[in-house]
Design goal:
Length: 154
């Protein structure tokens, strides 16, 4: 009787009787899209969260869609970031280096602490899934916007 009660309590909390958590499926479109903040992004950028905020994972995740000329501000990630380009063509640039073109299917790894930006090209939209690892509760350190001169510098 006691074991049955414990099992029922765990199931209510989203766990199985063995203590493992359930697999959860979040249907596409279950979270509203948001417009990225002009403090950290230039141009029109739409962010779709991939996992509802109450779910704790070791990384933040989102589908980020950039209109032509839209881009992030300069920033770095305390624990690194994986970008998976899902559509279009874009650019990624590390400070002090030439930018690189990225296209659908490309995967980009940005190591911890590297100052960089990413966004669309000047003529194409670009969307990527961003998997951004968390350290001490932070996943990004935001800096100044990428100026039009920096963006136009090939
Ligand atoms: Mn980044």
């Amino acid at each position: 009787m006691k074991n049955t009660l414990i099992a029922a309590t765990l199931t209510l909390a989203g766990a199985t009787a063995s203590g493992a958590q359930e697999i959860q499926v979040f249907p596409s479109g279950s979270a509203a899209s948001t417009i990225a903040s002009p403090e950290n992004f230039s141009g029109h950028v739409v962010v779709d969260a991939l996992v509802p905020p109450p779910i704790e994972t070791p990384a933040a995740s989102g589908l980020v869609s950039f209109a032509p000329e839209a881009r992030t501000a300069w920033h770095s990630h305390p624990a690194g970031q994986m970008l998976i380009v899902t559509a279009g063509r874009g650019w990624v640039q590390r400070e002090g280096e030439t930018r690189q073109e990225i296209a659908a299917g490309d995967v980009v790894w940005i190591p911890a602490g590297v100052k960089h930006w990413h966004g669309a090209t000047d003529v194409n939209a670009m969307s990527h899934i961003a998997i951004t690892y968390v350290r001490d509760g932070r996943n990004a350190d935001w800096m100044e916007l990428v100026t039009d001169e920096q963006y136009a510098d090939r």
